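Check out one such.
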Amino acid sequence: MAGCRCRSGPYAEGCAWSAVRGDRPCGAEAMNVLFLSQARQIEDQGSYHRAFMELHARGRIASYRNIPYLGVARERGWPQLWRDVIGHCSDVPTDLVFFQFYHGGGVESAAACVHQLRALKHVPLVAVSSGDLFSASAWVRPPPRPFAELSVAADVTFMTCMGSVAEFLRRQGARRLTLLPHGYPTDLFPPQPASPVNDVEFDVVMVASRGRILNPFMYTTWGALRRQRVADRLFRRYGKRFALFGHGWRGHPAWQGPVEYRKQIEAFRRGRVVVDGPPPFSQVYYASDRPFYVAGAGTPLVQFHTPRFEAIFKRDLHASYIDHDADTVKVCDSVLAIDEAELRRRVEQTVRLVMGRHTLVHRAETIIRACEGIQAGRSGPDAGKAVEVPLPLFHEDADECEERRSALVNWDVPA
């Protein structure tokens, strides 16, 4: 890694490892943060809220406020929400306004709000994140217009998938598109020991909802049919040793009913192997939050291959990958055949990886560090220098420099 840019920049000891510890860029002061959560009430995104609260308690951020924007907009209207945001940033010299998962829920354009933020005496950085699977195609779930507009207006965009959708947003004018996968909520699910290999009810568990099969040309129908075929394959192979949890499966012989969000870990640990339901289509780096939950739950994970995600969870160590749907049973059989001691070793390493790099506190820290880097590039001893972002996402055997070319898009712009 000698000479690699990702190990240099305005961070005292290199962006990758200092981000885990929480060091600031040279000369940076703790930020005042306004978190606009995708929530009707704070507890709807309670784990992310508590992650930022932990940073505040540690002194990583100077002040912190959470406005659940869906709830405020629903009760008082979008204009009042924007007045609340501008009022707070006028009263408190806010350094960062972070719009979380700004898509879905009938969100409206935030362009006028951002314009007013830019006119304040103390101009905050504006960040936005996406938390879902999107594509660059107008026919297959493109980014919603309010999110795309806000991404173009923002200083930095954090995304759970990159690839063509990141390039689409870059062409629209978005800057600093940054990979930020989902993470493990330690406040809800404490770290788990490796689950027992033999003392379980099922060989294979799959937790995944199935949408309705309606228009054959819709991506949601593709996803529902794909999950149906996977579940049928697993049932034909394992019979009563296969358990299927989630909505939309009524009548399927393997169905165990839906599972409450907070009880997912209990469902995972009822099986020797957990298969994550396949997405309707692939996008670079994309995975839902479930693989992180399974990996942190101390249960072997079988996951459908997504481009470049192997740099996050190493193949045949942190996860076993299904490259083609027809290989689903073959991959599950191979994991079930692994020696118990070896399987436990893999699971324990995976739990350590998740707790060391992939909790929501790590995600909140990455957001703050990236924004501190932008801020440092605007003023202070590092003004005018290339802005580097910490990205402690990849396992130790991954080529971090290569991954950063895909995980960071359009960062070569003035701060």
In short: Confidence is low (pLDDT under 50) at residues 1-21. DSSP finds 14 helices and twelve strands in the chain. The chain has two domains: 5-183+359-409, 202-357.
